[in-house]
Amino acid sequence: MTQTLSGLAARVADLLTHPDLAPRQSHSAPWWRQSLAHGIPGVALLHIELAAAEVRPWQRVHDWLSAATKAPITSGPDSHPFYGAPALAHPLACVAEQFPGAYKRTLDGFDQSIRAEAHRRVAAAHRRIDSGDLPALAEFDALQELTGYGAYLLRRDPDAPVVAHILTYLVRLTAPISHGEDEAPGWWTLSGPSGRPDDRFPDGHANNSLAHGIAGVLSLLSLAARRRRRVRGQLHAIRSICAWLDRWHDASGRGSAWPYWVTRAQLRSGHLKSAGVSRPSWCYGTAGLARAQQLAALALGDSDRQLTAERELLDALTDRRHLAATTDIALCHGFAGLAHVAARTADDALSATAGELRAVLPALLSAVLPPGTDPENTVTELMEADDGGPGLLDGTAGVALATLAPSTGTAPHCAWDACLLIS
Question: Is 94 annotated among the ligand-binding residues?
Fold first, then answer.
């Protein structure tokens, strides 16, 4: 199985040796050159990882990155960590980590615009807090806003002033805020989980997810603390978020270990109503939340919390009801993502749980590519699917990348998953 899955990654890369070989429907999409989630930057990460592992040539990396820059790249307010200059900067930075100085002129230009845009957004967020208004969900999420900017800039230049400014803002975000007659967490938003008004959430919600909610903030604050990049109140903010997640932990055995979100009615009553079993994915669900809490525990030196987080992940990955709720193989919310999060968590786990986490990997990988399945058919079907494609979050490049470390037993050779806030 491990050889088959590592071969799957190579097969995906060989089908995508050049951007011209990608499915035509991808080429026609306006986001193709600039989307880390679905386009060229995400596919480039696969080629970078395989080239860094010395199993495929670096020329493919150059071909893909060159294709992305054949026309102007979006920067400024219309860009974000998964689109435009920040999105393309991520794979360029992965190359530069292997070859210092590579793409230096382009990367320096991107970094300058990214820092300027992050400063602008932090200033706007502080003005919003000063006015007493509630935030938009997009103000702080990991894919489009300041948590994502922080993840990239922490990796590129952790001592830069802009990193401290982002961390300081995120600390302020965790302070309680008045919402009518209630005291709500500072990240309470009046929109639904999509970031738009939603009749199901007339009074808004508090989002717990890693991709869009407070777990992403927790991961960034914790990753920064582990790298000794700290601002005033940072450890207190980490503890505050952990206390929130403790409060809303679902111990009923019927639903997710942590709910995707908390509604106004739940906030007022102080009680969850279990909505049934939910998929334990990276983006929303126990996998992402457990990894975020493990990182927090490591930052705080809290072995009890670390053990709890690792046990919660194990429970989710061995409970047939939770696994049955996972219906695809993608990185974002499928089995490939579960396998990668489990492998990353195992690398940092206590000795009591590390082996158990690694022991669940074969079953997760078998769900990606069941025994007897033709890898080429799997790759082709996903690449041509309307909800798949060649990209990172929902497509073949993401499946290939996410199954490499779990199937080979080795950590990634480049920091391709830093954009996911799990490393």
Answer: no
